[in-house]
Amino acid sequence: MIPEAGGRPDPNALLEENKRLRRAVDELATLNDLSREIGASLDSQEIMNTIVRRSLRAVGAEQGVVHLVERKTDQDMLKTLVRTRLASTTSAHPAYAFDKSLLGWMQINKKPLLVNDPRTDDRFRGVRWDSSVRSLLAVPLLVKGELTGVLTVYNKKEPEGFTVDDQRLLAILAAQSAQVVENARLYEEEKALLRMRQEIRFATEIQERLLPKDAPRLAGYDIAGRSLPAQDVGGDYFDFIPIDSARLAFCLGDVTGKGLPAALLMANLQATIRGQALVGCVPSECMRRSNRLLFHSTDPVKFATLFYGVLDSTEHRLSYCSAGHDHPYFFRGEEEPLRLAKGGMMLGALEDSAYEDDTISLAPGDLFVAYSDGITEAMDPSGDEIGEEFGEERLFGFLRAHRNDSAEALIDALVAAVRAHAGARPQSDDMTILVIRRIA
Fold first, then answer.
1. What is the reported pTM?
2. Domains assigned to the chain
3. Beta bridge partners of 103
4. ∠ CA(401), CA(403), CA(409), 5° rounding?
5. What tens digit of pLDDT does each residue of 16-75 get?
6. 1-6: Cβ within 8 A, 24+ apart
7. Which of 287, 306, 309, 281 is nearest to 223 (CA)?
8. Coil, helix or strand for 149?
9. What is the pLDDT of residues 344-369, one digit of tens each?
10. Residues 354, 303: Cα–Cα separation, whole Å
């Protein structure tokens, strides 16, 4: 009802009512335009730019900013992502920083915050405001009651500051926008995840092509190798490199890390070893050169352990050098097995590492087995946090029991034994095995 003065409508009341109606029409137009613009996009940056731009016009502010709040999974704390900060063309000041005290207040209260005199507001004692911040209005972006972001505008252009009407309108804008922003962010995260999966799939395909497809056939020898990555791509590496008709270079390595970074380092290692093996130098010199090349082409924290050998099928000799790798087993008859330990440091750790090599003869029936630590460090599914490893002792007992198996059968049985030991516990590290037997 409009009050009447002397039987006629009060002019002042009519004026106020017209202003209220005009404001309501403007607000509806703002909300309609915002809904239309942000509903047509899945680009979170574009959506937030639109929200800020519309908010500045709606409440007559100089600057606006949207902060998205994400809860980190590894620590129960908040991470603030500044996605959009737009200043009006009339503002000569730089973009204002969002104070953490505001975020904390918003996280606790989850309701609009209107401050027309920041420096005297008892809620923010001790906060050092930018000297050019005269007023601010912040509203939460809530999705299912959870704070997902904060929309803040600074410095009302009119001297009296922000009003309750401004607060109400901005809260409506935020409520209308929160789910749209969240949907856009989830859509972008899904796209990023799909891209990452595609990259991993490509990396897996590349790695599969790098590893040997078939074991080499060398007269008088039974040879096999296998690598089982813990993730889609792994850091274990083995290779067979024919030098000539009688000599075969081979290696088994383990690079630092897992997943895609480890696979890339593995590819670098393979190219390096192949290049040096084909030069025909002795194993210690091959390791020395490879170490220097890797040291200069990788990060200081990236390195690899590697066992490298050259099998001469005419002379029946195996020359080798171990660069910090688990010592392979060499079985001869009923004798205690040898551990092939001659070598030096892991590759890529120090520029000028020294290496030694050694040579052993191969008699009919002799067996050589190299492996990565994913075999011995496989854990059982016990309730303990650490669990019990498959271990060297269990591996030694297994090899003694299966030492007369063919190379492929031995690998099959060892993989089955390790998986039986691990039970339901997921594989935590890459597992690689290489077997060479001189046929009796």
1. 0.64
2. 4-186 (3.30.450.40), 201-438 (3.60.40.10)
3. none
4. 100
5. 656 655 655 555 555 556 566 655 566 767 777 778 888 888 888 988 888 887 765 544
6. none
7. 309
8. strand
9. 999 999 999 999 999 999 999 999 99
10. 16
